[in-house]
Amino acid sequence: MRRPLRRTSSTRRLNATLFSVAIAMCLILARLVQLQGVDASRYRYLSQHERGKLITEHIPAVRGEIVSSDGTVLAMTVRTDTVYADPTQIVSPATPAGVAAKLTGLLRMTQSAIVAKLEHPSSPAYVVLKSGVVASTADAIARLNLPGIAMQPTYQRAYPNHDLAAPLVGFVNTNPGSGVMTGEAGLEEQYNPLLAGKPGTEVYQAGVSGLPIPGTQSAIRPVVSAGSLRLTIRADIQWKAEQECALEVAASKARTCTVVVMEPRTGQILAFAQYPTYDPASVATLASTTDVAVQNMFAPGSTAKVITAAAAFQDAGLTPLSSYVVPDSFMWHRAWYHDAESHPTQRYTIAGIIAHSLNDGMVQVADHVTPAEQYKMFRTFGIGSPSGLNLPGEAPGILAPPAQWTGGNRNTRYQISFGQSVAVTAIQMASVYATIANNGVRVTPSIVAGHTTGKGRYVPAPKPASRRVTSAKTAAELMAVLEQVPVTYNQAGESWGMIPGYTVAAKTGTAQEPGKNWYGSSFIGIAPASSAGLVVAVNVQDPRRGSYFGIDVAGPVFNAVMKFALATMKIPPDGGRVPYVPLTAP
């Protein structure tokens, strides 16, 4: 007999139902937490992947210009375009051959070459037809409105005057992905933050075609505009200096030639030339980009005699007329010294020692100056420290402190008096003579006149620092002595230091480069000497044909560049009157 069914308690049924609902709600909530919390990023990625993909497009800032003081553009950025095609969009009635026929003249490619690219693309919907297409050509292609043909604008660094001032200006490398240019040498490197600006980006949602999806939002980081750089360089003087350097290197088979043209009162560099040089648009090797005038060091030779003479005048109480008996060779403090050319033993004044470039006289002058005084004078003139131009790779020179000056046959005290056992750069020696010309006040050399901000505001460079190196009296005495040098050489038939109508103060130098089997030849001059108009410093390394003396090798370069610079700057002649200073004594 079946038992009758009993109805359970309504309370128990309600509790069971509520428990089931609670479990269901918990499961739903857990799933929601998983979907919207834990796995949200994954599903967001999958959703975006289904729709397309995020594209980040870099927007390069147009790199700023570098211009000379007279407005000549030395470096600029030009727009070019990459012409590419989507072959899938070239459909009837258009044909690859028909499209290629219209592009062949503009792209300077054969029709068959273009057709080959269209029929064998790098990917089904993309192939580059040509890169580096000038903007005017790209615009002409755009006006043809050809199916499947498009342009991507890019930017390239251009140097309109080719290798003019190339080692100073430097060069850039371009990131192939972002198109961002980075300075790698010279001013391009030193002022890269100013010249580069800051690139922008645009992030957008793209469909399978690679094009932005309509209605989607994009995130844009705007470009920060670049600034431009204005130099103190005069393009015409720079060109002349480079041409004369190239001619001298060819004539003497030398390794290098440098020319620095400088205004003593302002410290501004008007020319910073060298040869060999390079094409900044097509750099072969990094070694070829050396800025010789600030990176290479050399023995100054007799051009450094004025520094020890300055210490003798200022610290030891000597004058240009202090005299010494000078043989052409002799032993001095257990070491032999000799002059470059034989001459009879004679009593010379310090003026005569410098005018005739007598090493045997300078070592005697150095005996009146303590090592500390001599070292201090070299340092105060700027030897042994960077010039202040702040160019990449600038060498400080080599000047050991007196504690390292050894005795015997290597007595540095006497060797540096005639420019050995010390190493300098071309800009340092130009600055030495600019200091003498400027009444003994050294103005820090400068090569940047100012810059233009990204908003177009011109900001002049700060006034360069200056300091007194010698007294005005010492500087005037040195100038009077240096004015005797061109006259002395002219009397011997060497007229490279003579410029009609102008008084020239100058010094030559011929130095055997330590550790190298060659000579360095220098000529540094000031004209007009009466008004300290310009300094032209020339250095030629390792002349291998003909003479290696400074007057013969560097003298012709000085003469040509100084004449051109005086005319270009419209500096009037001063009459060419040289003060009389006795070179010999009874």
Keywords:
586 residues, alpha+beta, 7-stranded mixed sheet, 5-stranded antiparallel sheet, 23 strands, 33% helix
Q: How is the biggest beta sheet arranged?
A: 7 strands, mixed
Distance between the termini: 161 Å
Strand content: 15-25%
Helix-residue proportion = 25-40%
Shape: elongated
Number of helices: 20
What structural class do helix, strand and pairing data support?
Answer: alpha+beta
Counting DSSP E segments of at least 2 residues, the number of strands comes to 23
Instruction: Provide mean pLDDT, rounded.
Output: 90
Q: pLDDT below 50 for ≥5 consecutive residues: which ranges?
A: none
Gyration radius, to the nearest Å? 37 Å
Structure, described:
Helices cover about 35% and strands about 20% of the residues. It contains 20 helices and 23 strands. Strand 21 (about 505-510) and strand 22 form a beta hairpin. The model has no long low-confidence stretch (mean pLDDT about 90).
Walk me through the topology.
Layout: H1 10-38, H2 40-51, E1 53-59, E2 66-67, E3 73-85, H3 96-107, H4 111-119, E4 127-134, H5 135-144, E5 149-158, H6 166-169, E6 172-174, E7 181-183, H7 186-190, H8 192-196, E8 200-206, E9 219-221, E10 228-231, H9 235-252, E11 256-262, E12 269-275, H10 292-295, H11 305-315, E13 323-326, E14 329-332, E15 335-338, E16 346-349, H12 350-355, H13 359-366, H14 371-380, H15 412-415, H16 426-437, E17 441-443, E18 448-452, E19 458-460, E20 466-468, H17 472-482, H18 484-491, E21 505-512, E22 519-527, E23 534-541, H19 550-553, H20 555-568
